[in-house]
Amino acid sequence: MFRWLRGPGAVFKDPLPGSTNYLNAYDANGRLFRAAGSNRKDEGKDAENRQSTLPGEEGMEGEDKKNFASGQPIPRERPDDLMPFPLNRQFRSQPVLSEELREEIWHRSVKVGESVKVISANLGIEMARVGAAVRLKTVEKDWIQQGKPLASPYARAILAMLPTTPYHGGRAESKAHEPINDLPVHRDTLPQIFHPVSESRHFTRADAGQVFRPGLLPADARIPHPELVELQRERLRGVVRDERVNALREKNRLESLQKAEREKAKREKEERATTKVVPESGRWEFRFKDISVEDVGHTGRDRRGVGARYGFPHEDRKRGQIKIPRRVE
Is the whole-model pTM more than 0.70? Predict the structure, then answer.
């Protein structure tokens, strides 16, 4: 064990700056595979010489480490270098957002006022992750104003161990963090359906959605960013880039205004339907709403009914309920 710690294991004591330090990225002698002069094909030859030489005596203490110490940039991790578990070759460590990129997301959302959809499309980050980054950054800013201590050294140490997506200043050549238009499989599209169609009919994805379920939208309309599909179609039609971008910005602005108007109308409707009673002491405020017993629906579980969230036990919690299937359908 001590021979390994003094040999190839020494590279894990002092990890490379700006790079992951996974075991699978090094050969048996402690040399980085993606460094100059190292090749994964040579791993078998190194294994044959393990008995004749001490493992790691000519490892990173040799030419490779001198190159890194002299200021040469470390090559970017390859997919084979991002396997923290050598026996599980199907798992790849996924990159996380860098501190600069999270700061830029918060700045665009809070300071500039861009919508989550616009930030997601420009930076190549999923909308749910954009919202999470904004919320966590807001909490961090609040803690700094309140004088609460932050675990900044711990965060920097964790980020140094994981692959990160840096912020390139919004340049066009920057790589997306993750796919942003992935569409989960809809449960109504799982059955296999044989639908006869005449040869002369133009059967589209919208028609296929109607076959699976009436009212089911096609994938082009259900993806998180359908405007990117329209943007690509306009590019193929020969529309100038500036015109495409300006049209997309105007469309996003109108959608934001319509969404704000709908939310305002909803709040006003709830205010009109609510009767507020304030006692003389003024310490409480009682709110009353008119309800109907028909709101629960024919099953009694409609979300508009009273008790939809509270006090309605599940059937499997009742005594005597049969919890195993009694017939095959």
Answer: no
